[in-house]
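[Discussion] Sanity-checking designs against the backbone

I'm trying to build intuition for which residues belong where. Below is a structure token string of 272 positions. I'd appreciate it if someone posts a full sequence so I can compare it with mine line by line.
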């Protein structure tokens, strides 16, 4: 593994360590609460607005945030992926239009507006808001999948497979999976980033999880007014969100990147 890939993996490993091992480590924190935005007996990072240790809150605030983001993206893909593939493989133009025109209308609606309406109608339910975020992601996912699948479904290789006429469904499926795996994996990283952005925005606006939750986005929103007197109450959860998003996209980009031009050539060939 290259040094660059190791550095990307470390960026992602930090928030994942908080998510996976955090709740266990946080058990050692004192159960009581201290003065808000003051010193803490358990860590040097101080306390938040509710008197909880900042480090202990960050250790317990990542699981819900991460799981909600992942499940939202997977749910959106379960809806958007078959729509995009069906539109790309549609034998008639009118069928493609029937599938994609509602998607185009959904693209015109601001995502935050969908989330705010869902929050009001769902009385702040985190499940409803997660569903609204997933709905906002369905349209761009369907559009991307359609574009990625069109070149595969109507390409020359697929035409050759049709002419052979043997094990049609298996050959079609295996070829399509190989050709679409790389762009779809890259898109998953982008959609996860979008889900995290929408989830953080909803929580920052007070539309997501309970305002007393230790969720990272809620912690940033709840403690933002004390940034100058208790900076770690905002910086730590905010930094974990940034590391999660940046680390995920950098690592996915590096894993999916093809060989660079000239990278496999002997030095003598590269020099002339």
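Best answer:
Here's mine. Compare freely.
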């Amino acid at each position: 593994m290259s040094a660059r890939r190791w550095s990307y993996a470390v960026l992602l490993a930090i928030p994942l360590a908080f998510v996976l091992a955090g709740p266990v480590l946080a058990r050692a924190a004192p159960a009581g609460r201290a003065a808000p935005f003051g010193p803490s007996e358990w860590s040097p990072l101080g306390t938040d607005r509710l008197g909880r240790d900042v480090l202990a809150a960050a250790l317990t605030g990542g699981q819900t945030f991460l799981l909600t983001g992942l499940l939202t993206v997977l749910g959106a893909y379960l809806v958007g992926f078959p729509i995009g593939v069906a539109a790309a493989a549609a034998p008639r133009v009118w069928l493609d239009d029937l599938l994609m025109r509602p998607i185009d209308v959904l693209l015109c609606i601001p995502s935050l507006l969908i989330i705010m309406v869902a929050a009001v109608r769902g009385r702040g339910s985190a499940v409803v808001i997660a569903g609204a975020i997933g709905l906002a992601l369905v349209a761009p996912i369907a559009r991307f999948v359609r574009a990625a699948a069109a070149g595969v479904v109507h390409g020359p290789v697929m035409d050759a497979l049709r002419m052979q006429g043997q094990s049609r469904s298996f050959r079609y499926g295996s070829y399509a999976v190989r050709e679409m795996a790389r762009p779809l994996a890259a898109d998953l990283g982008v959609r996860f980033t979008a889900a995290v952005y929408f989830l953080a925005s909803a929580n920052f606006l007070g539309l997501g999880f309970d305002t007393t939750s230790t969720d990272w986005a809620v912690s940033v929103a709840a403690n933002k007014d004390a940034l100058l007197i208790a900076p770690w109450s905002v910086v730590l959860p905010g930094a974990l969100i940034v590391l999660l998003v940046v680390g995920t996209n950098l690592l996915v980009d590096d894993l999916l990147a093809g060989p660079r031009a000239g990278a496999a050539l002997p030095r003598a060939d590269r020099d002339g």
